[in-house]
Amino acid sequence: MTRKTFLTIAAAIALFVGTIAVLFPADFLASKGTMPSEAANLWMRETGLLIACMGTVVLSARSQPDSPAMKALMLGNLLVQLGLLATEIAGYSAGVITKVSGVAPNSVLHLLLALGFGYFWLNIQESMQNRGRQPF
Predict the structure, then answer these.
(1) Exposure string (b/e) for 14-46, b if CB count within 10 Å is 16 or more?
(2) Which residues, in sequence order, are CB contacts of 15 under 8 Å at separation 6+?
């Protein structure tokens, strides 16, 4: 899979999930088996907005060549996916997320996206080193 294809898919996922979280926060939370509240709905909307914005950035940058900025984009998204994965697992372990169906699909998705972002981040480092540029 090319980096552009991967980023297009990742952006589409982020835009979809972010939009659902903004528009339907209580339903999103209920699907995880959490207890929705006005405070939780607010945080879900904020998180959804940030995820949708990240999708917009990724979609806008997907055709750019290897550069320090593209490398930073890959690393930032890798860290986001690892952070969301850890948060989901911690939430389930603590009993905040009570449904396996609320954590398993997301965990697999975060893992696959982290692998993709990590793979392309490492390829940019190697590509830039081969061209004599300093990696991030």
Answers:
(1) bbebbebbbebbeebbebbbbeeeeebbeebbe
(2) 52, 55, 56, 59
Decide: pTM greater than 0.90.
no
CB atoms within 10 A of CB 103: 21
Cβ neighbours of residue 113 closer than 8 Å, sequence gap 6 or more: 10, 13, 77, 81
Which residue, chain included where needed, has tokens 């939780």? Answer: 40
Tracing tokens 């550069």 back to the chain, one arrives at 67
Give pLDDT tens digits for 40-80: 999 999 999 999 999 999 999 999 999 999 999 999 999 99
